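Q: I'm building a small set of examples for a reading group on sequence design. Run inverse folding on the following structure and report the sequence directly after it, with nothing in between.
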């Protein structure tokens, strides 16, 4: 349990149909969770799940970090290889 703020569960998976990487955020806390990804802000309400697709070209590496309140930081790296 966090002393302060929401604690999300965050995962990433390739999304070949959309040409990118899906970042899936689930917020099981009782407070909204706001984060920054790809220079945009997103909010996940309590009890909800939100998916954000980050565009990545085929056979390209990706390296991005999700930033949230209270020092939350989650980094995702890999290569989009759909073919």
């Amino acid at each position: 349990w966090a002393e302060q703020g929401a604690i999300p569960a965050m995962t990433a998976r390739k999304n070949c149909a959309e040409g990118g990487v899906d970042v899936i955020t689930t917020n099981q806390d009782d407070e909204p969770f706001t984060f920054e990804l790809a220079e945009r802000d997103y909010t996940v309400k309590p009890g909800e799940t939100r998916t954000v697709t980050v565009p990545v070209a085929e056979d390209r590496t990706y390296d991005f970090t999700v930033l949230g309140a209270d020092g939350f930081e989650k980094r995702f790296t890999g290569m989009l290889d759909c073919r």
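The CA atoms of residues 13 and 22 lie 5 Å apart.
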